[in-house]
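Writing this down once: the sequence line spells out the residues, with the fold written below as integer tokens. This is how one looks:
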Amino acid sequence: MTGAPGHGIDTARFVQAAGVAGLALSLLLVSLPRLKAAATYLPVDTALAHHWRGETPPPEQLSALSARAQAAILEYPHHRYFEGQSLLAYLQAMDPALTPQQRDRSLNIAAETALEAVSRAPMNPAAWLRVATVRQSLGQTPEAVLPMLMMSVYSGRVEPTLLMLRLRMLHEMQNDMDPDQRRVVVDQTLLAWRLAPTELLGEIRSGAIAYDRIAGLLVPAHASIMDEIDEAIRASVR
């Protein structure tokens, strides 16, 4: 005796629907940690957005936000959460009320979590630069600082917001560089002159970037650019 007409079709549809529902449930379960971590991290995102607008959170809030970032990492170790925790630790280290030991601890956390971030998403010039800056602040050797500084350039050659800070460090460390690294300094100096000549002149006038270091790099291969810089310096003091 055969089954009722359409019974086989209904069964197949039920199995298909159950399969789709099971797949949807599996995807939901997989995405739950990511969604939970995003919700945990949301106040950190908001606070850092305020920081970039010039409204840095007070020290007591930074501690609470750092705990939030750490909780988000435990829920889902996304590179953005490590980057956020790194920046928060760096900002905490700027608190003048900290002891030298507390400051160094915060700086070390900033470097360690930045390295975690770039191990997951290497194209992050700000994080690489933060590691270089922290290592320099902690008195580490050029061999520990320079590779991080170079990675900041390699991962984002044209970064207007980082350009002058990187250029200062690059010029400071010229004597520790090999020829390939000095070529990077030349490139970044020419880029600064093209993109931000006023800021570069300000760095030279303040002594943050030594005139002699720039001249030593650009002459003779880029003597015409050095002539432009010299003329701009003379014009600025007339």
Remarks:
- The mean pLDDT is 91.
- Residues 7-52 form the longest helix (46 residues).
- The CA atoms of residues 171 and 213 lie 7 Å apart.
- The chain has two domains: 25-156, 159-238.
